[in-house]
Write a structure and sequence with these properties.
- The chain is of the alpha/beta class.
- The protein contains five helices and eleven strands; from the N terminus they run βαβαβαβββαβαββββ.
- The strands form two sheets. A six-stranded mixed β-sheet has the order 5-6-7-8-10-9. The chain has a five-stranded mixed β-sheet with strand order 4-3-2-1-11, covered by helices on one side.
- The longest helix has 19 residues.
Length: 226
């Protein structure tokens, strides 16, 4: 038999050093009893202050995955993850509750962490290759991509004339067909949800979004091995 479960996530981005907002989100995540907190980049404002952004979530006993945006460098994202006990998943993949999660930070435009479209594609590809290796030992229920930037040819892209969507991210969505993509980057598109094929894309924004990903677990019958 199979029983239905969920992976409950609080996802947010574009905090830009707002410590009070981080505290509010951490309190919300704790109250909602989320499994994971996912931070989709632009945690700082031009790296002027790196304190008080990730810490509030860790202090609440929450598990944090993060990626850099275009306002902080990859080194800063690594530093924040290591300092507070989170995990920077840019170019990496993890599996939690049967959900495979691939991360790609930075953007195709910005002050600190800028990637070419080819670099964005290779980063996502690398994440999926890692996911494939992990999947040999842990079967996947769903696949989630965490990106700072948004894909090209979307409604999100129409909210700005400066931040063009990523053609490489769109290519990856069409090729790998993940179930869900979470992003931020375009502040004006916060909360917007749309689709490319069957892939849901959500701009989670600074106010965050509680997302429940349904998963199915095989219920052990009497006599099943542990």
């Amino acid at each position: 038999m199979k029983k239905r479960e969920v992976l409950k996530i609080l996802a947010a981005g574009d905090l830009h050093g707002d410590k009070e907002q981080s505290k509010k989100l951490a309190e919300k995540a704790k109250k909602e009893k989320v499994d994971l907190v996912i931070l989709t980049g632009d945690l700082t404002f031009f790296e002027q202050d790196t304190t008080g952004i990730v810490g509030p979530f860790i202090e609440k006993g929450l598990r944090v995955l993060l990626i850099p945006g275009n306002h902080e460098t990859l080194a800063t994202a690594d530093f924040l993850a290591e300092l507070y006990g989170g995990k920077n998943i840019h170019g990496y993949a993890v599996i939690y509750k049967g959900v495979g999660i691939v991360g790609v930070g930075g953007s195709n435009v910005g002050p600190n962490f800028v990637l070419t479209e080819e670099e964005i594609w290779e980063t996502i590809k690398q994440g999926f290759e890692r996911l494939k290796m992990i999947e040999k030992y842990s079967p996947l229920e769903k696949i989630l991509v965490i990106s700072h930037t948004h894909p090209s040819g979307t409604l999100m892209e129409r909210f700005t004339t400066f931040f063009k969507g990523s053609t490489a991210l769109r290519r990856a969505i069409e090729y790998f067909k993940p179930d869900l993509v979470l992003c931020s980057h375009v502040h004006e598109a916060e909360g917007l949800e749309e689709k490319i094929g069957k892939t849901r894309i959500i701009n989670v924004g600074r106010n965050g979004r509680i997302i429940e990903i349904p998963i199915e677990k095989k219920k052990k019958e009497k006599g099943d091995e542990d």
